[in-house]
Amino acid sequence: MIVNSLSLCYHNKLILAPMVRVGTLPMRLLALDYGADIVYCEELIDLKMLQCKRVVNEVLCTVDFVAPDDRVVFRTCEREQNRVVFQMGTSDAERALAVARLVENDVAGIDVNMGCPKEYSTKGGMGAALLSDPDKIEEILSTLVKGTQKPVTCKIRILPSLEDTLSLVKRIERTGISAIAVHGRNRDERPQHPVSCEVIRAIAKTLSIPVIANGGSHDHIQQHLDIEDFRQATAASSVMVARAAMWNPSIFLKDGLRPLEEVMQKYIRYAVQYDNHYTNTKYCLCQMLREQLESPQGRLLHAAQSSQEICEAFGLGAFYEETTRELDARRADLLAKTPEAVEKPAEDTSGIIKMAIKFDRRAYPPQITPKMCLLEWCRREKLPQPVYETVQRPIDRMFCSVVTVAEQKYQSTLWDKSKKLAEQTAAIVCLRSQGLPEGRLGEESPSLNKRKREAPDQDPGGI
């Protein structure tokens, strides 16, 4: 049996489970702060990862894997490099190996998801769908073990019969993987069904590699001491915690759970420091608040439409402003040191009308944007629709857009975090230079409001 020699130790460990939308960098760092030994990222699909480019983000001091649409698919940092396991969704051995080689220098281990029962995973032959194809399981894991220098693991669910389950895990062990995580439910069971500790125990007694027990949040794990009780009940080497850690990641802390307010503030600080998208931050905080979502703070969180508004809802407005200034200063310093890396908005900027403007979503009604106002004005004036040309600056991945209206170009001198924001900013420059309403709260734009009433369900398509 081949065993990868560069092995992350999986004995007697507390592990943050892979969780979709939850296991991003802020949550992983927070779990490490509270005592987790190993943290798994959320499942990331092989095809999506293979489109990504590895980018060193000098502003955030991170390594980013960036998709063609400039979305960060996976972000990691030096702090977790020796403790983060990259979990992929795959149904193909060669794709799996290509992904492993893409990320192996930035992570501590590689894991294959073979337990997710959700349709988005199984319909592509991934996740729990692999449990019915042992040959493919063997091919994927054997290829990874032989082809990467990092320890390889997999996470499975149990099969309907104990005999079939034990037969499968023995075959998996022979591929040379370093450990196996077992969720003690079958693919048709959900959290309300009891976890099968006895099946995990049987697996642990059968295999010589570490077995990581998972699935105990609903029935067993309410506080830190329960983690060890669950480990003993399953005879597992280690325990992987999912929802109990999502609700309060201080579950890993030996001294007991910390107050939720403290935990959420610490999470928000990481989210701001590492430029986590506000929608992901908001989702994770909602999971923590749970039954408190209808509280005054929960309602403020629900209404938040930016990282700044989330910070303000939790009394961290000053922290947001200070951190933003620090990141902007770091960005400016890097640009000053590497001027050759700065892309200009256009080769010939003569004749471009410029203003130093930023787009603040809070200043506009939910259904109205400057781009919509500009498009409506062009239609009324029977002009061609606006044309946006947007470039990205390689050094910090910031965006600048130039909009052309009636052969005149308009541009903000300030760069934005996304292509959409840069285009909105360019539209504002055009509207203000023409003295036109831009849709801000308190402004009247009768024809635009009329169009919205006539087509309330129309998707503005990023306008």
UniProtKB/TrEMBL annotation:
Domain DRBM: start-end pairs: 370-435
InterPro entries cross-referenced by the UniProt entry: Aldolase_TIM, dsRBD_dom, DUS-like_FMN-bd, DUS2_DSRM, tRNA-DUS-like, tRNA_hU_synthase_CS
Domain of life: Eukaryota
Pfam family, one: dsrm
UniProt protein name: tRNA-dihydrouridine(20) synthase [NAD(P)+]-like isoform X1
Transmembrane segments: none
SUPFAM superfamilies assigned to the protein according to its UniProt record, in alphabetical order: dsRNA-binding domain-like, FMN-linked oxidoreductases
Gene name in the database record: Dus2
Organism, as annotated: Mesocricetus auratus
Keyword tRNA processing: yes
UniProt KW keywords: Flavoprotein, FMN, Oxidoreductase, tRNA processing
Cofactor: FMN
Stretches for region Disordered: 437-463
Record's keyword annotation contains Lyase: no
CDD domains for this protein: DSRM_DUS2L, DUS_like_FMN
